[in-house]
Amino acid sequence: MDLDGLSQASSTRGPAPGGRAPLVLVVDDSRAIRDFMKNHLASAGYAVVSAGNGKEALAVMSERRVDMVISDIHMPVMDGKAFRAKLLEIPEFAPIPFVAMSTDDSLENARSMRELRAAAFLTKPFKADQMIILVESILDYRDLLERTLQEMEGLEKRMLLSSIMSLAHALDARDHYTSSHSENVAHTAVKIVSHMGHDAALVEMANTAGRLHDIGKVGIPDNVLQKPGRLTVEEFEVIKTHPGIGAMILKPIPSLAEVADIIHCHHEHFDGSGYPRGLAGGDIPFLARVLALADVFDALTSDRPYRSGMDLEKALGIMKDGRGSHFCPQCLDAFLDTV
Ligand SMILES: [Fe+2]
């Protein structure tokens, strides 16, 4: 394995995703060819690592995140075809662009590499410029494809979120006593998570989970959901199904699968006495522990048809009593800092 050949020169092309120079793996049993390719790729701004056969190349790839492979076909130990076939078996490696090279420019040879989904075929000997242009084109195409996929995922997520938010608003309209509840819970959850120093992605997830936490109430009958007085034991059993219904609604949407898990747990208690599964401590997702606080705080302090909201001091006293039993101690401390 020729790892000492790793080289990186002043770049003439943009960095790979993540801000680094794209890493090209050159696989050939001839040191002279490896050196020729490494020097020219490095001059064009690529990082390069090399190997003498397919087996060595697999070892390199298990340690380095390679952006592209250029491999000879005829090599000892493991030839280019066996190497390529192995890469196609490994989900992490199969999508990495693979260029085959050989002195054998027969149609049969080129076709067999095409069948192994090689992106291109370089006939040896080739000019350095020809190789650089090929590498640039393939990596540009890969970058374009990745950007397009990311944009599509973002669009899909925004469209799904707006549909689900509409559903949440429909729920709020039906249960008019708690019409601002979801927004209040989201607001408090965002404050707690931000105060604890978490990144923007987690803060955004806290907002989404807060707004959707009671989405499962769409599956609760009106006579139970809108009952003004105390619920019977049977009615409460019906209410207890709403976290599971919410998770079931959101789980099939890949971008909301994590939010679904959080919502499933927003009525769990830190000591395991909550519902629906009686999870405890760290088994309850962090954002679900935050939502539990935000949910109870809004329920205590907001006006209901059968009672007025509690004053802040009394509500905070009740919440402090739940430290370590109902509520996660660290989350409660962070919450108390924010009010
Ligand atoms: Fe709830």
Describe this structure in words.
The protein has two domains: 2-146, Rossmann fold, CATH 3.40.50; 175-338, Orthogonal Bundle (Hypothetical protein af1432), CATH 1.10.3210. It is built from 14 helices and six strands. It has 339 residues and is an alpha/beta fold. The radius of gyration is 29 Å and the shape is elongated. The protein has a six-stranded mixed sheet with strand order 1-3-2-4-5-6, with helices on both faces. The protein binds fe (ii) ion. Fe (ii) ion (FE2) is lined by residues 213-214, 242, 266-267.
How are the SSEs ordered, and which strands pair?
Elements: E1 2-7, E2 23-27, H1 31-43, E3 47-51, H2 54-63, E4 68-72, H3 80-89, E5 98-102, H4 107-115, E6 120-123, H5 128-174, H6 181-195, H7 200-212, H8 222-225, H9 233-239, H10 242-250, H11 257-264, H12 286-301, H13 312-321, H14 329-338
Parallel strand pairs: 2-3, 2-4, 4-5, 5-6
Antiparallel strand pairs: 1-3
Helix pairs in contact: 1-5, 2-3, 6-7, 6-12, 6-14, 7-11, 7-12, 10-11, 11-12, 12-13
Fe (ii) ion is lined by residues 213-214, 242, 266-267.
What ranges have pLDDT less than 50 throughout 5 or more consecutive residues? 1-12
Please identify the oligomeric state. single chain
For the CA atoms, what is the radius of gyration?
A: 29 Å
Number of helices: 14
Question: In percent, how much strand structure appears in the residues?
Answer: 5-15%
CATH superfamily of the largest domain: Hypothetical protein af1432
Distance between the termini: 60 Å
Considering DSSP H and I runs of 4 or more, what fraction of the residues is helical? 40-55%
The total of beta strands comes to 6
Order of helices and strands: EEHEHEHEHEHHHHHHHHHH
For the record, the count of structural domains works out to 2
3D shape: elongated
Per CATH, the class of the largest domain reads Mainly Alpha
Bound molecules: fe (ii) ion
